[in-house]
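Our consortium's second objective concerns turning raw sequence data into structural hypotheses that experimental partners can test. To show how far this objective has progressed, the report includes one record in full. It was chosen at random from the queue rather than selected for favorable results. The single chain below, 198 residues long, was entered without modification.
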Amino acid sequence: MAFELPPLPYAANALEPHMSANTFSFHHAKHHNAYVTNLNNLLKDSPLASKSLEEIVKATAGDASKAGIFNNAAQVWNHTFFWSSMKPGGGGKPAGELAAKIDAAFGSFDKFKEEFKNAAVTQFGSGWAWLIEEGGQLKITKTGNADTPLAKGQKALLTVDVWEHAYYLDYQNRRPDFVQAFLDHLANWDFAAKNLKG
């Protein structure tokens, strides 16, 4: 079963001016697509070829002999999750159960934003910052390169991509400005709330 590049959940220019269509043309059509192509090539004649993306990520995590498969499968999953973690007119504060859990875990939404931004900005090199649920508690974590909460048995709620290709065309080396724009204008709290319930 060959994997396909999932379509964006909105038009490529829908997140402007916070994320440009130019960034999407590289990030989705080139980077994300390359992971899909590489994964399909690596899975040819493999017993993993019939598995779901999630099953492949979990089955190859931590196995050095399958690092190529893991890296590409995890990046396909991470990127698909990242597109859904944003929406036009996003950002602001969540509501309902998610807001209550954020307040309980971090003290306030402002404190959450501060800790999330810090995790994203201090992730050395390439990687991701995540809001996750683990053991009934909300936590902030960061992962390097292709690593993902999915491989650790954690439930991902929301993520921001801090690989340079995610923001360099729009923000150059200003990663903190990109993460702030994500929190203020892009974060899809409806998606995070749905993941919390799921």
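The partners drew two points from this record. The chain has two domains: 21-84, 96-197. Strands lie at 127-134, 137-144, 155-161. Both points have been shared with the crystallography group to help prioritize constructs.
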